């Protein structure tokens, strides 16, 4: 009889926390090493699709999320002058169809709920731990200190985000994220500051609005039970080399959209401060699991995703839930025995799905940012006239993509994959 596993997770983002919760629930001991001095999420709003709500429900966290969330009614896709070209009902349609709600929340609240749950389950979170190197066969991590020190475990999970040291050590070469030539202005406005009559239409219901123009688009949605409006504006990247986040001039931001829909112009007049974020994604990796089968990647570290489908964190949370569900298929004392097969099944289950999400998110950029001309006219004609079917340009309304994104049932996927592994274990030895 052997003990449960000790798992080190590098990074306490939403993905690392989700993996910690899932793996602890499967009976193992988890330590998260986080470089920051304080826990929390920077940024603003985040959307939680039904596939993530399903995970949160299974973990008993759905009602906690509800207390901080807005339930959007409709998603409207508009031209830059404000004309609504297509609408997808979210509440009640999406919840009725996929069984779980679509939420919009402040990142800090979402992160706090996952952190509290991880700690309640017994996860150790060590702050100010900058991981500098990894020994993949022991396995162990070297943490920056005075002097540096080493921590060993049975399994190491690299959940250290977009600029992942774990990924670069695993590949044994520099592998910076891919430049996409876009940046996002992110801003929050109190709804109590949005009383102008021009905004009445935007305020009637808590809807998500998208506006599309050449090489740029804008979006806004409500969070914190409709008390805060989250605004994201995408424009061509003009940040200096090496700068990925920077506080920015509100006037400069407003000027870029001053010929757009008067509602958007008025909304941007309410913004008091804003930040620019360089947007980057990643290319599909061949492998996520090290050949010694004691190290695996998760979240943005292996599939950084553009935000246009609001799926990056959702995929990271699904990764964590799948890993946890796979470990729960075997007794904690058998964790070492089955670890290689569990990690390879995880990679098989997650790699193609996340690569498709990365690609579809990039495709949505092309649709959003079309220059005025025949392609844009055909896009708008389809949006206005066609009944959504596969390939419909409003990707949230494309029934096949919607099913793929929102209908994902992590526990069912794990049941099927583990069943097939048990019938023929060699199939997992890739
Ligand atoms: C503008 C914008 C809007 C977005 N909107 C959405 C949305 O609506 N819905 C959605 O699902 N996704 C959205 N995303 C994507 C989402 O933010 C990311 O995909 C998600 O946060 C990734 O989570 P993660 O845990 O993998 O990585 P991260 O959140 O980046 O966490 C990584 C953690 O690792 C730590 N770390 C890094 N290096 C080390 C080290 N060497 N040692 C120790 N710790 C380390 C970091 O401090 C950090 O805490 C958006 C992204 C952007 C830019």
Automatic annotation (TrEMBL):
List, alphabetically, the InterPro entries matched: FAD-bd, FAD-dep_Monooxygenase_BioMet, FAD/NAD-bd_sf
Q: Which residues form the FAD-binding domain?
A: 6-361
GO molecular-function annotation terms? FAD binding; monooxygenase activity
Q: Which UniProt keywords apply?
A: FAD, Flavoprotein, Monooxygenase, Oxidoreductase
Asked if the record carries the keyword Phosphoprotein, the reply is no
User: Which Pfam families does this chain map to?
Assistant: FAD_binding_3
**Residue spans crossing the bilayer:** none
Keyword Oxidoreductase among record annotations = yes
Q: Which family does it belong to?
A: Belongs to the paxM FAD-dependent monooxygenase family.
PANTHER family given in the database record: MONOOXYGENASE, PUTATIVE (AFU_ORTHOLOGUE AFUA_2G01950)-RELATED
Q: What is this protein called?
A: FAD binding domain containing protein
